[in-house]
Amino acid sequence: MARIANTVNASHVLLVEGEADRSFFEQICKSLRLNPLIKPAAPKDYQNDYVQSLRNTKQGVLNLLDNLLAELLDESAVTKCLAIVIDADYESVNGLGYEKTIEQVCKIAKHHDFALAETNSHGLCFKHDDEAAEFGLWIMPCNRDEGMLEDFIKVCVKTDERLLFNHAKNIVQAIEAKKFASHHHSKAEVATWLAWQKKPGHGLYAVVRDDLLDVDHALFQELKSWLKQLFI
Question: Disulfide: which of 28, 53, 71, 144 matches 77 by Cβ 3.0-4.6 Å?
Fold first, then answer.
């Protein structure tokens, strides 16, 4: 894709799949008091930069990655730090799954001489051949399993919210004539749980804003460490 403008004028970019993910990570960055230069962005935020139509999807992120890696290696470009967060989804419903998702990212990265680095942390990091550049990758929910952001949230639900969440989960499971696809169970469960909060009708960002997650949970701590490692 040929870029014709530069509307996302940020040095620290956290590229995510869509608006719900973007607002979630805006709250995460705020709550963790991360570098204020971090700009969570979705593909459509870049639309004015391209003639081609961009979509807020996992593939939309992967389509942009090629250009953003080229900018990361260009000392004159605005982008200095880059990380992406995408869902593993489910292989059985054409969502790739974890293994095929990371294969796609590795293929794009290799084109720019980036390779997946060995690391003791649970977040993923790609290093450039000359070791002068890197970019981060987090595949929801936990960099190994199939799933999505909502599955990350389910794992990290706060202890005093667990009873209400399990009730929402049971209600969703009990629906006989489900209109949503089977792989969207987690989305339905989290949405139902959020609909029963003091302020219903809010998006995924509310789980951070309203202190509904166990920030001491190992998985949350892994995400926190990964973000801090990349966006110093």
Answer: 71
- pLDDT for res 120: 58
Q: Residue 82 has what DSSP assignment?
A: E
CA distance 40 to 60: 15
Mean pLDDT split into 10-residue runs, the chain, 232 residues: 82 97 98 95 96 95 96 92 97 88 97 87 86 91 96 98 97 90 92 95 96 98 95 82
Centre a 10 Å sphere on the Cβ of residue 110 and count the other Cβ atoms it contains.
12
Give dist(CA 217, CA 161) in Å, integer.
Answer: 14
Going 212 to 216 to 222 to 223, the CA torsion angle's sign is positive
The residue among 69, 68, 31 whose CA lies nearest residue 210 is 31
Question: Whole-prediction pTM value?
Answer: 0.95
Confidence at residue 2, expressed as pLDDT on a 0 to 100 scale:
75
Name the residue among 100, 72, 219 with its Cα closest to residue 155: 219
**DSSP assignments along 158-171, one per residue:** -GGGHHHHHHHHHH
Helix (H, G, I), strand (E, B) or coil at 135: strand
At residue 143, what is the residue type? N
- Give bridge partners of residue 124 from the DSSP assignment: 137
Q: Are 183 and 95 in contact (CB under 8 A)?
A: yes
Alpha carbon distance 96, 31 (integer Å): 31
Binning the chain into helix, strand and coil, the percentages to the nearest 5 are: 45, 15, 40
In Å, what is the CA distance from 29 to each residue of 2, 39, 79, 171? 30, 9, 18, 32
Instruction: Give the pLDDT confidence score for residue 5 in this predicted structure.
Output: 80
